Amino acid sequence: MVFEESLQKLVDNYLAWDKNEKFRKQIEDLVAKNDEAELRARMFGKLTFGTAGVRARMEAGFNRLNDLTVIQLTHGMAKHMLAQFPRESNGVAIGFDGRYNSRRFADLAANVFIRNGIKVYIFSDVVPTPVLSYATALLKCDAGLMVTASHNPKEDNGYKAYWSNGAQLCIFELNINQTTTIQSMP
């Protein structure tokens, strides 16, 4: 099935860029069912930082939380860190909760930071959010990242960023939305 040009381009890009078979299959199934409404819901728009980071349903699509969007968000955060701290980075602390995919998303983020030359301190097990915040300040990291959706439903996950003092970044301080365009880069 071929959809309207802008939707088809997003579907093609997503399928070309996402390497996770589970998420790719979700899009392939929607295409096979000719479910244009659901494809539009998942493909148009993009993840944005709110007052407590990014929270979204774990599904395939550019405005959902999945392997591809975690990589893209982290690339944007890494670019922002390198612009803010042009000297040798003091690194980033990464924590995750026990939610499905949290460890996977934390590992993906760690790989992106490392590829950008940013030192990573990642917890080996589940930690509560305040522990990540404290570790960020204690280790004198430039930033912290916590993969958690807090009180959101189990189908969701989240991406919370912290400054070197352990305080959560707000949208005024970290505008990753300007740093990376989620739909236009792998």
Name the CATH superfamily classification: Alpha-D-Glucose-1,6-Bisphosphate, subunit A, domain 3
Uncertain segments are 172-183
What structural class do the secondary elements suggest? alpha/beta
Give the strand content: 5-15%
CATH first level: which class? Answer: Alpha Beta
Provide the gyration radius in Å. 16 Å
Mean pLDDT: 88
Tell the overall outline: elongated
The quaternary structure here is single chain
Count of extended strands: 5
Family: Belongs to the phosphohexose mutase family.
InterPro entries: A-D-PHexomutase_a/b/a-I, A-D-PHexomutase_a/b/a-I/II/III, A-D-PHexomutase_CS
Protein name: Alpha-D-phosphohexomutase alpha/beta/alpha domain-containing protein
Keywords: Isomerase, Magnesium, Metal-binding
Describe it.
It is a single chain. It contains seven helices and five strands; from the N terminus they run H-H-H-E-H-E-H-E-H-E-E-H. It has 186 residues and is an alpha/beta fold. The protein has one domain: Alpha-D-Glucose-1,6-Bisphosphate, Chain A, domain 3. The chain has a five-stranded mixed sheet with strand order 1-5-4-2-3, sandwiched between helices.
